[in-house]
Structure formats: structure tokens, C-alpha cells
Amino acid sequence: MEKIEKHQGEKGISFFSLSVDGKEVGRMTVHITPGLLKAGYTSVGLTQRKNGYGTKLVNAVVDYARENSLKVIPECGFVAMMFNKFPETYGDIRTMP
To answer: Packing angle between helix 77-85 and helix 53-67, nearest 10 degrees?
Structure first.
């Protein structure tokens, strides 16, 4: 069973984690300020790649941003690639630094 959770960190730096059957397989750091979410480093374990987990993390962060009226700066190369590849899906929330 897959589960994505948001974890609150210090100084606005938080992360989203993706667990499968209770084991963390991926995480994305985020920095949230009023009206803005910076999508930082995304990591998925080497043996877990090609399972769509990175995309699931991006979508969870995007859903969170939309629910909280935040614009997203894609600082992570993977997030930027997803935003560039699918502008019809992510164009409404993308912003530049």
C-alpha cells in the first residue's frame, strides 16, 4: 500500500515522503512561504525507480499547492522536467524565481 505524507521541518523546509508497505521509497524537499512553494530535491531509491514514484511525489506536491493557493518554483531538475513536459497539467501553478 502506498502512502504520501507531508512532514513539517524547521524554518519552512519540509518534505513529502512516499512509503510503500511501510518502507520509504522516495521523498521531495519543499520550502513553503506565503503564496509560494519551492519544490526542491526529489529522491527515489535506485531499486524503486521506473515505478512512477517520482511522478506521484510531484503530483502530491502539486495537489497540496493547489489546495493551499500556492505557486510552485520547480528547483529540482525532475520537477522542472515534468512541468516542461506537461505544461497543460502544471502550467497553472508554475512560477519562476
So the answer is: 80
